[in-house]
Write a structure and sequence with these properties.
The chain is mainly α and 171 residues long. The protein has a domain of 118 residues. It has six helices and six strands.
Length: 171
């Protein structure tokens, strides 16, 4: 790739600010490493999330300020597939299920799990996929404002040269 007087060699993958980027449109390896980190973080605070001694607001703050930053580090560069979006939603539901716990029915007195809609109403924040999409839009806006002389801007608005490979693109 050539820009102005500089030439860049083609790399299969490289690590940039702790994020592994590849020449494929798939970001699956990076998301897998984020999933491993998120599981380690979740399991370290799992007992706090299920404790009855802590208020639910404190547990939600713990989730937002400790677990989510680990999961969402570098998410501005992710191009998510439906399968990866589903995995992230499943993780968020698992954490919220741990935070809010079961609900006792007033009529019968039996314990039951909360439905996803009930949990989402109690959480009252956007789901994790919507957060990722808003962060991507914010990042694109920042790159669009930094100026034409910066390399990141040229990558965002540039047109690649050469021919595309045969077949349907991955995304």
């Amino acid at each position: 790739m050539r820009t102005d007087n500089s030439t860049f060699e083609r790399m299969e993958e490289f690590k940039y600010l702790g994020t592994t980027l590849t020449n494929q449109t798939s970001i699956a390896e990076e998301i897998k490493s984020r999933m491993r980190s998120r599981n380690a973080c979740y399991h370290s605070v799992q007992n706090l999330l299920s404790s009855r001694l802590l208020f639910k607001n404190l547990k939600i703050n713990l989730y937002r300020n400790v677990i989510l930053p680990v999961v969402l580090y570098g998410c501005e560069t992710w191009s998510l597939t439906l399968r990866e979006e589903r995995k992230l939603k499943v993780f968020q539901n698992m954490v919220l299920r741990r935070i809010f716990g079961p609900r006792r029915e007033e009529v019968t007195g039996e314990w039951r799990r909360l439905f996803n809609e009930e949990r989402n109403d109690l959480y009252s924040s956007p789901n994790i996929v919507r957060v990722i999409k808003s962060r991507r839009m914010r990042w694109a806006g920042n790159v669009g404002r930094i100026g034409e002389e910066r390399g990141v801007y040229r990558v965002l608005v540039g047109k690649p040269e050469g021919r595309r490979p045969l077949g349907r693109p991955r995304r």
